[in-house]
Design goal:
The complex is a heterodimer. Chain A is an alpha+beta fold. Helices cover 46% and strands 16% of the residues of chain A. Chain A has 8 helices and 5 strands, in the order H-E-E-H-H-E-E-H-H-H-E-H-H. In chain A, a hairpin with a 2-residue loop joins strand 1 and strand 2. In chain A, helix 7 packs antiparallel against helix 8. Chain A is elongated and about 75 Å long. In chain B, strand 1 and strand 2 form a beta hairpin. The two termini of chain B are 42 Å apart. Chain B is elongated, with a radius of gyration of 22 Å. Chain B is built from 6 helices and 5 strands; from the N terminus they run ββαββαααβαα. The chains are: A alpha+beta, B alpha+beta. At the A-B interface, strand 2, helix 2, strand 3, strand 4 and helix 6 of A face strand 2, helix 1, strand 3, strand 4 and strand 5 of B.
Amino acid sequence: MSIPVKEREEIAVQTPSRNTCGRAIAMTLANPIKPGRSKVLRFNFFMLRAFPPLLGRLRKLSFVHFLRWTIVSEFPFNGPPQVPEALGHEYLLFVSNYNGYWLQYIDAFYSVVPDQMDWIWGNCYGYPKGQPAGATKRLISKLEYTASHYYSAYPEASATMVQSALELKKRFGRFQADMRGASPEGFEAGFRRFVADAQRDL
Amino acid sequence: MPSKIGQAYTYLALTAILPGRSEELREVVEAYPLASESPFARVGRVHFARWVIIPQLVEVGPPPEVPDRLNNEYLLFSTDVDGDLEPFLEALRTEIPEVMDAVYSHCVAYPGTADRDGFHRYFRRNQIETTGPFTPYPDATVPEVREALELRRRLIDLAVRAQELDAAGLQEAYRQAFAG
């Protein structure tokens, strides 16, 4: 399934092409963590994992495929000629795979999970807590790294399409079982019911 | 184990690039074809993957932050895969050895794919454990996602055609589409 030209053009305007693979877009950020705050961050992530309803709100961000936050306490050292790092901060890496428009992506984070954004990026330097989303967009555009290679196994699909397809597959299994041995008229009625019930996922 | 979410594993590594080799590395990595021609497509179990060259940390200001400066450039490798880490590393080593060697020969202390144990040790040593992973479909493998997307495509097609078919024609079209 091809992506509408208009959508491709808008993605291209807002996102370096190397950060895209079909509909999928890569975001890679590294924020310095304020001194002493990595323990707070680890606790907050523990809470988000321990109480799924908190993280569950992220499901409303329907255009996220996979994302992760990673605290980098130190850079792995492999011996010379690598020079050991002597950094003054730990770093929070944010690595996301999403689809849609960059600006909408940031706006959605602000509107759906504002508390979680504060709990996480509020522990980092530069996060404009309590300020309009525009300040965060400016920060992110400054912090974002461009991928040299980016891959998606299903570039034609948005995250919503993937979730709909998986839901549809479950429903379809039940439909197939129900329709075994059905007459043509019975099948037609059953198929129309199935389509009506599954409309949201088609 | 925070790197694990559902059946999936979220792997991230930061490997130091050999001094003066980052531009050559960039040329190698950027020359690989994308999408279904990407080397990662041959690994099979990869949902998403990226290589990002980190030349330096970005200063965010304002004070009191004292900017950090990296002493090395790094290659970030981030991927979301089916299953566990060890089978994935072994798949990288055996399915795309020429790619892994071409890329990581630009990094410090890379042992090469011919050294099985060294290869696994290298990618475990340079791994940064994920702190907070998220995906709305943690239990779906790559083949399951692709199968579901294909099923959805065929169902949409049949639903559109159904408007012009009588009952017997619809049932026959369904049988042809789904071997039912």
